[in-house]
Amino acid sequence: MPAWHRRRVRPTARVNIGLAGFLIASLAGCGGSPATSTPPKGSVVATAKTAPSPVAPTASPVLSPAPQIGWRAISTPSDLGSAQLRDLAPFQGSLVAVGATDDALGVIWSTTDGQAWMSSAGPTTLDGMLLAAVAVGDPGIVVVGWSETDAIALFSPDGISWSRQQVPGSHPGSSIVAVAWQRGRFVAVGGGGEPGAAVSWMSTDGRVWTRVSIIEEGNQESLNGVAAGPDGFVVDGTHRGRAAVWTSSDGNAWKRTDLPGSTADDPGRLRYAGGHFFLPVTGGDLFTSTDGQLWLRTTVPGFGVGVFDVASIPGGFIAVGRSSEGSQPGVVATSDGDLTRWTLQPADPVFDGALAVGALAWPDGAQLVGIGNSLSGESVFLLADPAALVNP
């Protein structure tokens, strides 16, 4: 199964991240051990943490009866090939998904309806780029990741023409693993290639990037994700081996909050959705906050491996993840708008053969779109009617 769907393993040695070093693929059956792929030192691919994933599912995707009463899976168009998709975001009436193929070719795909997907990379060469996250701001769209030689930041004003931007201080082993936009600036976080060498950057236009200081070096800290709400930015990571968050109203001055828990808590993908920040940790537990400083911990039932992503849908929220290691399928849970409790949804045949590692409701709320992978390692897009999931 793709390496970036597994929980993070803190690296101990420099790793070549070319070709199969980033993503690699499937297991024959449930008992095999997946090939290990490690991100650059000092950085954690949010996927590895967020999507603590999974060994491969156990059957080929099966269409649900209809999107009104469940999910349906759409395979990647043959002309696109297959990729391990990592993140998606709305942009100018479309959804944009980013990731990379098994031979380290970055992909930027888009759709206007959730069903027909096409490449949006244009003539830009993405060979050797491992793309991990995407963010949209007033100037345009930013896609981040890394290569064997440096951290990657791509910018496009229109989602069609892309330019690669210089990332200050970037070198072999550097990476950018997450990016967010708020209050007239992008903030990105990643690693510098050595243990504890967490790095962060800021840009007002997506083109010119400068270093910003979020943590104090030498405190066994890592920065793994960033999300933005109306009041500013929240960054997640670890401090002295425990889950922590940093908050800032402007991207310049930062305040750390240590989260209650143990060193076993492995922070996952940080999201802002529906007025809440969501931070999954090990074993289906989920921290929620409205301001990034006061956090409440709850458990999503049935998510033994963990929550991969959370999205806001009309009437509440939806979480996608995996029930347990081995042959168990992906799982979905929903909650009302007050987050009083999470309800595990009935098993859907789609998730016998596909995993959703990311989810996002269309801006008008009429359709829920998920990105994931099938048993054979092919890209899969998942569609559902969010209203039917909250009020079946």
Write up this protein:
This protein has helices at residues 46-50, 386-390, and strands at residues 71-75, 84-91, 94-100, 106-111, 117-119, 130-136, 141-146, 151-156, 163-164, 175-182, 185-191, 198-203, 210-212, 221-229, 232-239, 242-248, 255-258, 271-273, 276-280, 285-289, 296-299, 306-313, 316-322, 330-336, 342-344, 354-361, 368-374, 379-384. The relative contact order is 0.16. The protein has a single domain, classed as YVTN repeat-like/Quinoprotein amine dehydrogenase (Methylamine Dehydrogenase, Chain H), CATH 2.130.10. With 392 residues, it is mostly beta strands. The chain has a four-stranded antiparallel beta sheet. The two termini are 32 Å apart.
A few lines on this structure:
Helix content is 3%, strand content 42%. It has 392 residues and is mainly β.
How much helix is in the residues? under 10%
CATH superfamily: YVTN repeat-like/Quinoprotein amine dehydrogenase
User: Which percent range describes the beta-strand content?
Assistant: 35-45%
**How many individual helices?**
2
Write down the Rg: 19 Å
Under the CATH scheme, the architecture is: 7 Propeller
Please write out the topology.
Elements: H1 46-50, E1 71-75, E2 84-91, E3 94-100, E4 106-111, E5 117-119, E6 130-136, E7 141-146, E8 151-156, E9 163-164, E10 175-182, E11 185-191, E12 198-203, E13 210-212, E14 221-229, E15 232-239, E16 242-248, E17 255-258, E18 271-273, E19 276-280, E20 285-289, E21 296-299, E22 306-313, E23 316-322, E24 330-336, E25 342-344, E26 354-361, E27 368-374, E28 379-384, H2 386-390
Antiparallel strand pairs: 1-28, 2-3, 3-4, 4-5, 6-7, 7-8, 8-9, 10-11, 11-12, 12-13, 14-15, 15-16, 16-17, 18-19, 19-20, 20-21, 22-23, 23-24, 24-25, 26-27, 27-28
